[in-house]
Write a structure and sequence with these properties.
By secondary structure, the chain is mostly helical. It is built from 10 helices and no strands. Helix 2 packs antiparallel against helix 4 and helix 7 runs antiparallel to helix 8.
């Protein structure tokens, strides 16, 4: 069973490693690693190339996370824990979605976030993993993901810092999971995902503390990337 989890994580990594931001920018004659904040994340792509490419990159990066977190569900692989769709507000009356699929989903999502941030296709360079993580948590913990999305929107439209909005949205995940009384392993995994996002934003945190972090403005090269 451990081997299967590793396999799910590997598939997640390969999905996450697909460098959509780099490829879309390259198709327009731009090396995204050399402009703006030099990140292939959706925010930098949007700044450099405009809304359309930026939104497309965000959607594709989120799709990577969603697929990595959900494809193993199709296998209905039995493990020791049953997850009964409570996260969706449904009862367990015949609505079991494969034993232990949430654990497989977490393995796939962790792999995808690592793949996005350290892609084997771009010499282990990548983005911050926020969009990819968001796609995955929407599948695994949708209610907590909705709260995180609300936090992101509130912080971003109040302060215009993508980095701060992403960090606080990530931190809200384990807090929400814990307040909703979800199993401890899920709380721990949500906390690890939040920690990963925080670590990937460590330079942004330093600039926020120094007051030098750039607010998001259209077509302005900046440093707050997701």
């Amino acid at each position: 069973m451990i081997i299967f989890y590793l396999f799910v994580g590997l598939i997640g990594y390969l999905l996450g490693a697909l460098p959509f931001g780099y490829l879309i920018a390259r198709a327009k004659g731009v090396n995204i690693f050399e402009v703006g904040s030099k990140s292939p994340g959706a925010t930098n792509v949007r700044r450099v190339l405009g809304k359309g490419p930026g939104y497309l990159v965000f959607a594709l990066d989120a799709l990577k996370g969603a697929l990595a977190a959900s494809w193993a569900l199709l296998a209905r692989t039995p493990v020791s824990v049953t997850y009964d769709l409570q996260e969706w507000g449904l009862t367990a009356n015949g609505l079991i979605v494969g034993d232990g699929w949430i654990n497989l989903g977490l393995a796939g999502l962790v792999g995808a976030m690592l793949g996005h941030s350290y892609s084997c296709f771009t010499k282990f360079r990548g983005g911050k993993g926020v969009a990819t993580g968001a796609g995955g948590v929407c599948i695994i913990i949708p209610i907590s993901a909705a709260v995180g999305g609300a936090v992101w929107l509130l912080v971003f439209y109040s302060l215009r810092y993508v980095s701060l909005a992403s960090i606080l949205a990530a931190v809200s995940l384990p807090v929400t999971v814990w307040l909703r009384g979800r199993p401890l392993p899920l709380v721990v995994m949500a906390a690890l995902i939040a920690l990963f996002v925080i670590v990937r934003h460590r330079d942004n945190i330093r600039r926020l503390a120094q007051g030098t972090e750039n607010r998001f403005t259209k077509n302005t090269a900046g440093t707050s990337e997701s």
